[in-house]
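Example 9 (inverse folding). The structure is encoded as follows.
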């Protein structure tokens, strides 16, 4: 397999290689695919913004190439019914969510890869949020 002329391991080296390539061009040419591949490999490791800025590349194109959208698996109807978590509101200081008394409220939404979703509005800093998050994520484990 022929070795690429663009480094995918060091940002400074790739920058020098791209500078040399750009200076050798007499007219506008598209960046070679192997240069984009090297930049994508670095962007996955170092971050898209840093690599795009350093190399003078289009941020959005580099982001699209290095972070392709995930293919979502279809959600199948399973025989397992969704879990239920009961909350005892009287244990929370500040009253019921939505009331005018008590501390500020927050809204938290949990999502899992299978499409399960839990939305909760609760007093900010409530210790129940951690327990709910753990119960929500635990329910998908065998």
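The amino acid assigned to each position is listed next.
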């Amino acid at each position: 397999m022929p070795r690429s002329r663009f480094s995918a391991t060091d940002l400074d080296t790739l920058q020098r290689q791209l500078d040399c390539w750009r200076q050798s061009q007499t007219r506008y040419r598209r960046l070679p695919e192997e240069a984009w591949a090297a930049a994508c490999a670095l962007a996955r490791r170092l971050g898209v913004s840093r690599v795009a800025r350093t190399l003078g590349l289009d941020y959005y194109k580099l982001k699209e190439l290095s972070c392709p959208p995930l293919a979502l698996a279809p959600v199948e109807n399973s025989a397992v019914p969704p879990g239920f978590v009961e909350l005892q509101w009287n244990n929370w200081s500040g009253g019921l969510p939505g009331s005018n008394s008590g501390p500020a409220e927050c809204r938290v939404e949990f999502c899992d890869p299978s499409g399960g979703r839990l939305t909760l509005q609760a007093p900010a800093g409530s210790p129940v949020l951690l327990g709910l998050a753990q119960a929500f994520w635990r329910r998908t484990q065998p």
